[in-house]
Amino acid sequence: MKQQLAEGILKPVPEEPTGYVVHYIAHKAVTREQAESTKLRIGYNASARASTESPSLNDCLEVGRPLQPLLFDVILRNRMKPIVLTGDLKQAFLQIRIA
Description:
about 20% helix
């Protein structure tokens, strides 16, 4: 969490209410003993509800088409080229902001 605070992914909760409606995402520690590099990470639960009557964050989001390309399409495109470059977006999904 300290690393995510430093990177601006997380923000500390103010001591006093600001007057704005604020929502928090439930989270918990996820451990993987067999992992080589990251044995402990944060698992966020956007499906959690404050009460049975209130919606979750996932319920409030507009559902659209998937933005990730289909794996089959990626494999086909890569078979057409003599050279393929790949990359890993570090923690890409932690950077999403919702207006």
